[in-house]
Amino acid sequence: MTTAPHDTEAASGTATIKVVLVDDQALFRAGIRMVVSSQKDLEFVGEAGDGEEGVEVVARTRPDVVLMDIRMPVMDGIAATAAILEQADREQRRPPRILVLTTFDLDEAATRAIRGGASGFVLKDSDPEFLLAAIRTVHSGTSVIAASATRELFEHFDRRGAGSQVVPAEFGTLTTRERDIFQSAARGLSNSEIARLEFLSEATVKTHISRILAKLSLRDRVQLVVFAYEHGLTS
């Protein structure tokens, strides 16, 4: 079910993407550390063996991307994700993008982590090239890691159905064009797919997506999918 990331361009400029890994398996951490450190545009700045330690490491190192295991002792990845984002909000600073690491596609815990603010998920046995592309993609903020898979997760595990039918007031601030693009993004379409559907350039689609996220106070495209699903705005 997991698909390759889209729009994997590295962030503009020469600054490296700082990465923190939180996982309770030392051997797995060593492997990921080696893979990330081999890349010129990535910087491995810290690691932790449980969620509680992970929150502390993130506070100290201020990474751009956090690779977060779901199941860990002391504090699991779901609670750690929430704590990291709450901490960033309290300090009024930009939160890191959090990529959940899971062992299988249809993981209910991944659904809860994404609802709590994670920006996507990656299988722990993914190829190194896929993981590196996922880190760059989620950092760019221009694409979703397997957006269609995110939606499938919610449809598979959320027994409440399509969510609340009460449409938030801020959704009414979207223009007709923005609503069309919102629907396409909520279905998991990439920027290039939306551009072809709406007869627009990819740059124009990116601009519209940025405006939609700002109007709805959403962190990224994954949160857009969650917003659409929970408020009955999926088509």
TrEMBL record:
<dbReference type="InterPro" id="IPR039420">
    <property type="entry name" value="WalR-like"/>
</dbReference>
<dbReference type="InterPro" id="IPR001789">
    <property type="entry name" value="Sig_transdc_resp-reg_receiver"/>
</dbReference>
<dbReference type="InterPro" id="IPR011006">
    <property type="entry name" value="CheY-like_superfamily"/>
</dbReference>
<dbReference type="Pfam" id="PF00196">
    <property type="entry name" value="GerE"/>
</dbReference>
<dbReference type="Pfam" id="PF00072">
    <property type="entry name" value="Response_reg"/>
</dbReference>
<dbReference type="InterPro" id="IPR058245">
    <property type="entry name" value="NreC/VraR/RcsB-like_REC"/>
</dbReference>
<protein>
    <submittedName>
        <fullName>Response regulator transcription factor</fullName>
    </submittedName>
</protein>
<keyword id="KW-0597">Phosphoprotein</keyword>
<feature type="domain" description="Response regulatory">
    <location>
        <begin position="18"/>
        <end position="139"/>
    </location>
</feature>
<dbReference type="InterPro" id="IPR000792">
    <property type="entry name" value="Tscrpt_reg_LuxR_C"/>
</dbReference>
<keyword id="KW-0804">Transcription</keyword>
<feature type="domain" description="HTH luxR-type">
    <location>
        <begin position="167"/>
        <end position="232"/>
    </location>
</feature>
<dbReference type="InterPro" id="IPR016032">
    <property type="entry name" value="Sig_transdc_resp-reg_C-effctor"/>
</dbReference>
<keyword id="KW-0238">DNA-binding</keyword>
<feature type="modified residue" description="4-aspartylphosphate">
    <location>
        <position position="69"/>
    </location>
</feature>
<keyword id="KW-0805">Transcription regulation</keyword>
